[in-house]
Design goal:
DNA-binding; mainly alpha; Myb_TF_plants; 10 helices; Arc Repressor Mutant, subunit A; 218 residues
Length: 218
Amino acid sequence: MENKQVKPPIKKGLWKPEEDLILKTYVETHGEGNWATVSEKSGLMRGGKSCRLRWKNYLRPNIKRGEMSQEEEDLIIRMHKLLGNRWSLIAGRLPGRTDNEVKNYWNTHLNKRCRTGKRKPTDPSNHQNGNDKYKSKKQCNSQTTSSTSPKSNPEESDGKKKEKEESTVTNTWIQDAQSMNYYIESPVMPVCNDAFVLNDEPFIAYWDSFVLFESFGL
DNA sequence: AACAACCACAACCGCTTCACA
DNA sequence: TTGTGAAGCGGTTGTGGTTGT
């Protein structure tokens, strides 16, 4: 009974800089993947999930930190209208941004604004100064931009989910799009928005989201 | 100065999906 | 085809800084 190996307790809570350094060094040396062994072999007393999340959201190269630009913000709003809470998909269209960051930003900034119908003024100066009440708080890991990892291309693996979501996502998107004055034009897309329903089935549900995005010029 | 309330963000949890034997 | 472990995802909670009283 007692010969079971007692696992060391998994550490939780905020990551310390030295832990970041250990994880970063380890992943840069050995590569991503197999997160369960990363925590063991690196000596970090963290769960594999925690390591993966920390790497993905903060330590990975090309992570973009700091305030969202007006363009990014608009994109999030528009895509959320189309896709709902598909944060990984939305983040996939924002180079350097993570799903967690997009989700947090939505929940803290955009959600309430959209609910109240207010929009942030487009004045760029407002962007630098506005809402930076807490800006200096946690900006320790600033990096520059680039693309997301190729492995987790959410748009490809997303086909199966679509059917499940079609009732919630697609039923209103045309109305939303129209209300936002989008003009949909695509080689494979009928010009008339009303033509998206085939035999009671929303036509859009069978599309790859890529087509959807391209159609909106995103 | 002290404390409570508020806010933004980091991290965790549980479920789902994927990959592979 | 099926079982299993790893990875991914989204919702929720925790943490710590700022502001107001």
